[in-house]
Amino acid sequence: VNVIGVPKTIDGDLKNEYIEASFGFDTATKIYSELVGNICRDINSARKYWHFVRLMGRSASHITLEVGFKTQPNVVLIGEEVLAKKMTLGQIIDQIADVVVKRAKLGKNFGILLVPEGLIEFIPEMKELISNLNDLLAEHEVHLKTLQNVEDEFKFILSKLPKHLSALMSSLPIDIACQLMLDRDPHGNVQVSLIETEKLLIEMVSKKLEALKKAKKYSGKFSTINHFFGYEGRCGVPSNFDANYTFALGYNAAALVLNGMSGYLSSVKNLTKKSQDWQCGGIPLTMMMNIERRKGKEKPVIQKALVKLNGEPFKAFAKQRKEWSLSDCYMFPGPIQYFGPASVTDITTKTLQYEQNGKK
User: Fold this and answer.
1) What are phi and psi of 17, to 5 degrees?
2) Tens digits of per-residue pLDDT, 208-261?
3) Other CB atoms within 10 Å distance of the CB of residue 11
4) Pairing between strand 279-284 and 264-269?
5) Which of 82, 145, 282, 310 is most buried, judged by most C-beta within 10 A?
6) What is the pLDDT of residue 185?
7) 11, 13, 26, 242: which one is catalytic?
8) Nearest Cα to Cα of residue 117 among 185, 201, 41, 37
9) Which candidate, 43, 39, 42, places its Cα nearest to that of 103?
10) 272-328 pLDDT, tens per residue?
11) pLDDT tens for each residue of 156-213
């Protein structure tokens, strides 16, 4: 049996010096960008709501960054930046509220914010809280079952947490706190993907703005609508780029099998060029593997590729985001194009373009 792999994940976190992109990422981000672009067009007309949009991508923020490039919203949160700067939840709330206040002074009580699905896990204090909760809920499982209601469980957990984590837990909206306590996976861990991060941000920003109003530092309106774009992005008809890319990956995989190769990943490079200029080959899976500890055992795994803060895509985003925050630079990509000039139909992601231009 010959085993040949292909780089598959819409999250875009399977890439390295040997693999330029995973298939599905282009299609998913184009679908999400159409949806977000539609919202951008609506708020540019209605001019009365703040839309908080959560996008897929638990372990990395590639999708959020790419959709940000394609639609240019007012606030784009990148989990990797939050982690690198060791930002607290309070600092994130302050950052969002600051943009809301500044836009309100310009007469703009509307805007759009993008948040990656896994943001919670990138916030160091939230990660610490979740880790402590996992241990406490496992340690006191029998006692917790004797308590009559969620309120009693909440009080008990607060009494067992370290002081700073107890204060953090108390600051969370009660429904989010309950999700942290009640929704567990089969291993007893918090199901972070079920936490409605966009609603958490809305509630906490609302409280911050109420405090600023009392202090007479804000006089605008903050009406909100929340969204989660998940499965609708990974089940769409593929873009021309993804159709061409997967055809090349599959044809290449068959060639590797016919030549007796095994344990390789099908690789297609030069993806920003025309498809006839792509370079095909095979990369040994072992070349991409690192040893990581998983469930108490050392296992070889392909390391997830996170957004690099010193990479060309993030640097390009960092240069533009200040203008996006206060100006209405919204872009409306529309639906995926299948017919017309190749410069429109076969265009790849902004992320890949920035990465390839940075190598020249």
Assistant:
1) -65, -15
2) 999 999 999 999 999 999 999 999 998 999 999 999 999 999 999 999 999 999
3) 23
4) antiparallel
5) 82
6) 64
7) 11
8) 201
9) 43
10) 999 999 999 999 999 999 888 776 788 888 889 999 999 999 999 999 999 999 999
11) 899 999 999 999 999 888 888 877 877 666 666 667 667 889 999 999 999 999 999 9
For residues 196-235, one letter each, b for 16 or more C-beta atoms within 10 angstroms of the residue's C-beta and e for the rest, the string is bbbbbbbbbbbebbeebeeeeebebebebebebbeeebbe
Decide: 194 and 179 in contact? Cβ < 8 Å.
Answer: yes
Any idea what DSSP says for residue 237?
P
Q: How far is CA 205 from the centre of its chain?
A: 20
Please identify which residue in the block is written with the tokens 């959560």. 54
pLDDT (0 to 100) of residue 184? 64
Which among 336, 360, 332 is positioned nearest to 346, based on CA atoms? 336
Let me know if 346 is a catalytic residue: no
Burial 73-86 (b: 16+ CB within 10 A, else e): bbbbbbbbbbbeee
Tokens 């930046």 identify what position?
Answer: 81
What DSSP designation does 63 have? H
Nearest to 215 by CA among 136, 101, 132: 101
